[in-house]
Design goal:
Purple Acid Phosphatase, chain A, domain 2; 25% helix; 13 strands; binds fe (ii) ion; 264 residues; globular; six-stranded mixed beta sheet; seven-stranded mixed beta sheet
C-alpha cells in the first residue's frame, strides 16, 4: 500500500508557511510516499512564481498542479517549460507552454513505482477551453500503461462537472480530486470501480476569509458591485488535503480520508 497526499489550493504565504511548518511531520506520521499540491494561488493568492514553486517542493511536495490563475505571474512561463514537477491543465488550447501530465518514479521496499499526475480545468462558469473529458482520455492514452497509479486534479467551479469527471474516469485512474472552490466538501468516497473521489479538497490557507481574501473586501464588493484590490487574509490558517491509500499492484484506491489541520 502506498499513501498519497493531495493538498487543496495553497493560498499565499500563510498556506506556504503552514506547509513548511507541518508537512514534514505529517509525511512522517502518516507514512506518506507522495505529495501533490495545487499551487495556483501560492504567490500572494494569485498565480505561482519560481520561488513559491520551490517553497512547495522544499516543504515536501513532489508534484504541483495549477488552474485558472496560471497566467497571473508571467515569470512562471519558463518554469512551466523546464520543470517536470509543475503540471498545468491539459485542456488549455494547444500551443501553450508546459505539460498536462507528468510521470514520477518513487521507490518503496526497493521496488520502483510510477505515479502519473494529470491536471484538468473545468468549463462550466469558467473561461471556455478544450473538453476536459476528451483531454483526460488523451492524457491517459499518452501515459500508455507507463504508470498504473494516476491522479487527476480537476480544477473546476461546478460540482456536477467534477462528479461527472469522477464517474467518467472511475476504474481508469486512481483518484479524481476537485480543486478551485477552496471549500472542502464532505463527499470523499471510493467510486464503484476503485477510484478515490472528492468534489473539492479545500484550501491550504487563511480560513478567516472569503475563500482566502479578507472578508471585508469581498463583502464591500458584493454590496457595491465595484471592483476593489484583493488582499489575502492571514488568520486562522489550515491545511486541507485528502490522504489516499493505494494498492500499487493494481493502482486502485483502497481508502480516502479528509485532512484538516489548524496551523495558527
Ligand atoms: Fe484556487
Ligand atoms: Fe482556481
Amino acid at each position: 500500500m502506498i499513501n498519497v497526499l493531495f493538498i487543496g489550493d495553497v493560498n499565499g504565504k500563510p498556506g506556504r508557511s503552514a506547509l513548511s511548518a507541518l508537512l514534514p511531520k505529517l509525511i512522517r506520521d502518516r507514512k506518506i510516499d507522495f505529495v501533490i499540491a495545487n499551487g495556483e494561488n501560492s504567490a500572494g493568492g494569485f498565480g505561482i512564481t519560481g520561488k513559491t514553486f520551490e517553497d512547495l517542493l522544499s516543504a515536501g511536495v513532489n508534484a504541483v498542479t495549477l488552474g485558472n490563475h496560471i497566467w497571473d505571474k508571467k515569470d512562471i512561463i519558463p518554469v512551466l517549460e523546464a520543470e517536470n514537477r509543475l503540471i498545468r491543465p491539459a485542456n488549455l488550447p494547444e500551443g501553450n507552454p508546459g505539460r498536462g501530465h507528468s510521470i514520477f518514479t518513487i521507490e518503496k521496499n526497493s521496488k520502483k513505482i510510477n505515479i502519473a499526475v494529470i491536471n484538468l480545468i473545468g468549463r462550466v462558469f469558467m473561461v471556455p477551453v478544450d473538453c476536459p473529458f476528451k483531454s483526460a482520455d488523451r492524457e491517459i492514452e499518452k501515459i500508455n500503461g507507463n504508470a498504473k497509479i494516476i491522479f487527476v486534479d480537476i480544477h473546476a467551479e461546478a460540482t456536477s462537472e467534477k462528479q461527472a469527471m469522477g464517474y467518467y474516469l472511475d476504474g481508469r485512474v486512481t483518484g479524481v480530486f476537485g480543486t478551485h472552490t477552496h471549500v472542502m466538501t464532505a463527499d470523499e468516497k471510493i467510486l464503484p470501480k476503485g477510484t478515490a473521489y472528492i468534489t473539492d479538497a479545500g484550501m491550504t490557507g487563511p480560513f478567516d476569509s472569503v475563500i482566502g481574501v479578507k472578508k471585508e473586501i469581498i463583502i464591500r464588493r458584493f454590496l457595491m458591485a465595484a471592483p476593489e484590490k484583493f488582499e489575502l487574509s492571514e488568520t486562522d490558517v489550515h491545511i486541507n488535503a485528502v490522504l489516499t491509500g493505494v494498492d500499487e499492484a493494481d493502482g486502485r484506491a483502497k481508502t480516502i480520508e479528509r485532512i484538516d489541520i489548524k496551523y495558527e
